[in-house]
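Replying to the earlier thread about multi-chain prediction with a worked example.

Input:
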Amino acid sequence: MHYFIGNLGHLFVITSFVTSLISVFAYFKSQFAPTEEKDQWLKNARISFYVHGLAVLGVVASLFIIISNHYFEYHYAYSHSDSRLPLHYLISTFWNGQEGSFLLWIFWQAFLGVILINTQREWEAPVMVVFGLVQAFLASMILGVVIPLIEIKLGSSPFILLRDAIDDPIFKLQPDFIPKDGSGLNPLLQNYWMVIHPPTLFLGFALTLVPFSFCIAGLWLKKYTEWIKPALPWALLNGGVLGLGILMGGYWAYETLNFGGYWNWDPVENAVYVPWLVLIASIHTMITYKNSKAALKSSIILNIAVFILILYSTFLTRSGILGDASVHSFTDLGLSGQLLIYLLFFTVAAIILSIIRWREVPTSDKESSIYSREFWVFLGAATLCLSGFQVIIPTSFPVINEVGSWFGGDLRLAVPGDQVLYYSKFQLWFAAAIAMISGTGQFFWWKRMEKDQVKKEIIPPILISLVVFALIIVIAKVYTPAYLVLTLAGVFIIVSNIKVLASVLKVNPSLSGGALAHIGIGMMLIGVMFSSGYSKVVSLNNTGMLISKDLPTEFNRDNLLLFINEPRTMASYEIEYLGERVEPKHVNGYVSKNDIDLTIDPFTVVAKKDIEFQGKKILNAKDTFEINPENTYYEIELRKDGKVAATLFPRIQINPSMGGFVASPDIKRNVTRDLYTHVSLPMNREEEPEWSETEETRVRIGQQFFVNDYVAVLESVTKIDRIEGLELAAEDVAVQAKIKITGERDSYYAEPIFLIKDRAQVGRLSSEINDLGVKITLLNIHPETNEFSLGLNTRQKDWVIIKAMEKPMINVLWLGTGILMIGFSIAMVRRFREFKK
Amino acid sequence: MKKSYIIAIVFIAAAIAIIISTAGNASTYVSFDQAFQMASSGNKNQIHVVGELKKDEVGNIIGIEKSADKLSFSFILIDEEKKEQKVYYNEPMPPDFARSEKVVVIGNYYENTFLANKILLKCPSKYQDEKINASI
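Result:
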């Protein structure tokens, strides 16, 4: 038992909590202290925040030591890792658990706090008061301390011992029991995106605190206008990082999960999407304020809203309130009360502060004409917020139901079964409106214009947009009204921003961030519209069987049953299932399960013969190599006009401790469309029907016979001297038959063994060929006629059920994402430079 | 009146419209009897029913039937008012289906049969159920 490291880690947690509170106190004091004491308080405050930062690093280090040294006496290591995980996945076990993800969040905020201390002389004290408070709240989530007298447990510590976390009888018998291995990392999370997506997302969460702190500091110190300048570059960084984090999550879902897309409108996704929308709105109003002294009040409201929404989403996803509403498993760590206090504290405090100061916040009395950029920015920001509002309401149904029940109501609201359809129906129009507003607003952004000038400026882009739009709808055959509007809006925002981009590049390329970001958004809209709106299931079943006699026939059957080596047609492809494969750990490629021998260790196998993959030899016969026995890949070949168009390897992971069975797709990527395939149901050998009754046949060497309709021939029968795993004495006799069976694609060898042991006992080792559903036993030898009796058993051939979808133009979405990120980066660099001046 | 007030009013109206239409389009958790009544009165909205799988005395799940081509299956769900209903689902049976404690089916009645468009499984939580495998 390694008690020390856990106690040390816990001590660090408590230290980080206490020091964050001390820094709040000292920073607060420094703000109001007389000048001679001010420096002393500031120094104390900084030291305590640095100690806080070091303590957070200490927590991270302690937890990492526990995970990387596989101290399974700790609950966190036991339930989130095992001893086989490579280093990069050991790192991702950090954020697999709730405590660890809080820790990641705390870590980023401590890091940002240190940067702010060193860059913001003037704003340091008030901003760090807010920072320290948030850090204290977050640290309390992993505190794991029971408050004496009132017996309330504060936080859930990541350093809790397994025996304290789980009530298992073994700990009564053996208090020092340590499991030999952990229960492992969820196979879905064993993906490189899961190493970088959560840190990016949590950096995005943490960054929302920066503009919020500046805003609160501005209200508090009555510096109503000055806070915008230092906050703006951070808000831009925030928009980029949070957006990137969200999209990484979408990309991971697309590659790893089997719901068939990158966005599922799941509460977890919505909970970060809404704050991002509001954040984007706040960036726009802040820039407007910098340029024309308007929209200050909306900037304040939006900045506060972003942070509150992040807290609300934390509450939604971690309190367990979503329960039935989400397919994600959220476990309530008993933190819901604490999370609620965290949420309410900052909501109430920020609202009260705003109300007190509201009258003093300067406003511009200028009436904004519809030819001014303020008008369009305001319109766009309001539409973004409405769009977010539409998402947050259904996402909050569980909360609404809960609150309703306090008042005796029984609401039972739920998001409709097809939540993607439900949300898209609304969001599509918002997206189109935002694109139209933003595309139009661009013309007023760069110069103030009068009516006649507007016509001259705006008509050419409109005409170009219409031409491009007409081309797209003719080529892509878009006829749905809603999609037409969205396409037009997407094209318009791209065209109008290309025009802006062209003129900005001539003047000053460092100003091009906005135009680029908007072009990216337009491309994303078009990419989303095509890849989701025109996504179609291509694995339609054409067997003509009905689901049930009682039901109408028009229901789609989206899955396709493939028997091994039996081609079917799907979309314009000929599709064929070729068998189960494993993936060697250190070699690129896949190996057929027929070509390996298992060993006692499930993670190690031996190659039966030289193994080629796509024409290249990857392993020699008798090579021992490592595999992950949880993973099976199903080789599926797609042919077009007789030529192989793609070979796909969708994966199934069997992991009973994580809920049984997990499917991941494989994607054939083309420039214009992806073909997305996943296994809906693999064959379970234990559930398969029994072998048929043994059919006996007598054959001579070289004689052909049929088994399960395949041609087979007995090639030879030879005496063998050793059998794997069996001791042979001198007088024992063993012979092995070699039977070649010609399958559809390959020839297989069945090698049953006939054995006479101790002169009397007869043993028979059958040989199975899974691909063909054949089992052959050497039953007897008839020396008098030179014949051999073979026992033949057959069963249904191997099969797999797959689902395949086509996703057109998805690359436009990914390309747009890239351009959006470049745009954010350019804009951010510009604003940071501006701040430094 | 200032233009900004007009815009504000328009947006408040839009927000109210969103609330109404969002709630109006929302589905609700109901029992099979309510769902049946809704369907017979012409309401085509998808509804959610929460229930448990039918079990025999010793706790084995009964009533699961897979189609011959394995592409769909049906099962018997008992809702919170103890009504039994045969539910059809047009997808292969998920392997962890029989382990689930609670099943949420989302779909509609077609005459006397219930067709699920989607099912959500609530499997025993990792944390509640966790027992240590002492043999490892």
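Chain A is about 50% helix and 20% strand.

Feel free to reuse this layout for your own posts.
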